[in-house]
Amino acid sequence: MKILKNIYKFITKSPVVFIAFALLMILSICSALYTFNFLLSVIKNNEQALEDERTYIVEVSAPDLDSRLSKIDIKGKGISHIYCLIDNDGEAVIADYYGHRIGGDGVIIGKWFTETDLAYGAKKVVLPDYHSLSRQPDFEFTRYDIGDSYEINGVSYEAIGIGALSGLTYQIPYNSIDDISLISAVAVATESFGDENEIESLSTYLEQTLGGEVISRPDVNEKISFAEKYEQYLKEGAIIVGIMLMSVFNLAYVYTYILDTRKREIAINRISGQTISSAILTFYAEILILSTLGYIISALIVKFLILPGLSDRGFMFNDSIEISLYIMLYLIFILIYSIVFLPSIINQIRKSPVEAMTDEG
């Protein structure tokens, strides 16, 4: 109760200063969350692109493709997962075979397939990212939402998610393909790039095992290109962290000024019998509550206003921060705020009431 009264005094004593402090806090947290989300989205997109660059596409026509697929040495060849491409009126349909990315990594919205879905061929589909398709002005498409029915080659599938892959890329469990003859190609994604000799060796192995021809395979130069991109992301991230820390220190400077204007209040509390530790705890709890409220408000603004607003205008800004990550970021914010704000609080409260009253005069 004393803490809430303390916050009330803070607000009523200098409402203009409090509003400026609150707005600066929310602005800094919103900027941090938005920037973190943006970098996370870029990294996820590039991780997906990197996976695509580690993929071998084998054109097949063998009637015994089902048994051939089961003979592939997944662990021995360093394969992460296999999926199949089937024609759907000229559009590619991806059917995940081994489901390496179970758990949501393959979707932006909705959910990924369960092990049961993959094992028994559930009639479910993860649709393409229609936000990316909407940026293609000459492309006409029907917007589907989670739970809608989507037809592939005359078979109805339940749409359970929107995929992280961009373009005309549909993902369905391999066993849900009723007609194996519809499969036109098999895609094999590897855990790592490998060198030129390893790429050549795996290409030969896949052609022999699947009875087809490799029409696309990894390029070692792409590995170098992506490594350079990640290095650039790390540099940009370091700069952003520096800017965010500067904003926190600026916020701490403002709060130091606020504490300076409240010296008389602190001195009176001390004279009334409040101990130094109790005063420090009261003011620390005050900044903890304000920081928590500021973080919650900022997270809601970013999640429900900024990101949807940008997305509706054609920007590729998906919400890449999960709830667990929001909680982790909150704990990091509180830790940073504690490190930055506590010295100012302790320094002000440790002054004797006489010294504080003299400074006030």
Tell me what the structure shows.
This protein has 361 residues and is of the alpha+beta class. 57% of the residues lie in helices and 16% in strands. It contains 11 helices and 10 strands. It has helices spanning 2-13, 15-53, 65-70, 115-120, 130-133, 196-210, 220-261, 263-271, 276-312, 323-349, 353-360, and strands spanning 55-59, 79-88, 91-96, 107-110, 124-127, 149-152, 155-163, 169-173, 183-190, 213-216. Strands 8-3-2-9-1-10 form a 6-stranded mixed beta sheet. Strands 4, 5, 6 and 7 form a 4-stranded mixed beta sheet that branches. Strand 6 (149-152) and strand 7 (155-163) form a beta hairpin. Helix 9 runs antiparallel to helix 10 (323-349). It is elongated, with a radius of gyration of 28 Å.
Features:
361 residues; alpha+beta; 6-stranded mixed β-sheet; 4-stranded mixed β-sheet; 11 helices; 57% helix; elongated
Global shape: elongated
The SSE order reads HHEHEEEHEHEEEEHEHHHHH
Instruction: Give a quick account of the main beta sheet: strands, pairing sense, barrel closure.
Output: 6 strands, mixed
Average pLDDT? 79
DSSP summary: helix tally = 11
- The first-to-last residue Cα distance is 30 Å
What percentage of the residues does DSSP assign to strands (E)? 15-25%
What is the number of strand segments? Answer: 10
Low-confidence stretches: 97-104
How helix-rich are the residues, as a percent range?
A: 55-70%
Topology:
Layout: H1 2-13, H2 15-53, E1 55-59, H3 65-70, E2 79-88, E3 91-96, E4 107-110, H4 115-120, E5 124-127, H5 130-133, E6 149-152, E7 155-163, E8 169-173, E9 183-190, H6 196-210, E10 213-216, H7 220-261, H8 263-271, H9 276-312, H10 323-349, H11 353-360
Parallel strand pairs: 3-8, 5-7
Antiparallel strand pairs: 1-9, 1-10, 2-3, 2-9, 4-7, 6-7
